[in-house]
Amino acid sequence: MKKPTRGKRAPLSLLVRPEIKQVVDRMATANGITQSAQGEALIEQGIAVRQVLDAMGKEAEEIALLRRRGYNHHRVLIGDRAWSFWTEPGFPIPTSGFKPWREGELKAAFPDHEDDVPDPVELPPLPPDLAESDPDRLYLVRVRGVGWKWEIAPPQVGQSSSPERETK
């Protein structure tokens, strides 16, 4: 195997199942990059996941098993950083100490607040353009008179939003 020149791209040929190619095509189109750039980003992401699992001494199936056994994943924003951690079932996470709104207090503080917009019992469907997004960056926004819609948060400081942009 010939060692690639540092700083240059090295060719890599892959044969993939048609379903995988379709996913890569959709993601590349949505991200405005080439299939090659999208494939490279996915390979980098897969390597990063593998390295994390190796560092944890776990396999992806073991992480799924944590959820099935009732372990809870938490994500906390402190300043401009997002911290992620798992807790055992029943672990006592202290609450914030906030008290519920008293009658009329919410409307007084936020005159444009609508009480008639239902809380989402079922999550609205994820739009196709967000289907390949990082689920940790997705959140729901209340839309006046309509209900809820999905939004994507900007990447955290030091985290790239997408692979290097290339022209098609």
Describe this entry's structure for a reader.
The chain is α+β, with helices and mostly antiparallel strands and 168 residues long. Among the domains are: 15-57; 110-155, no CATH class. The chain has four helices and four strands, in the order H-H-H-E-E-H-E-E. The protein has helices spanning 18-31, 35-56, 60-68, 105-109, and strands spanning 72-78, 81-87, 138-143, 147-152. The strands form two sheets. The protein has a two-stranded antiparallel ribbon with strand order 1-2. A two-stranded antiparallel ribbon has the order 3-4.
Give the structure's gist in a few sentences:
The protein has 168 residues and is α+β, with helices and mostly antiparallel strands. The protein has helices at residues 18-31, 35-56, 60-68, 105-109, and strands spanning 72-78, 81-87, 138-143, 147-152. Helices cover 30% and strands 15% of the residues.
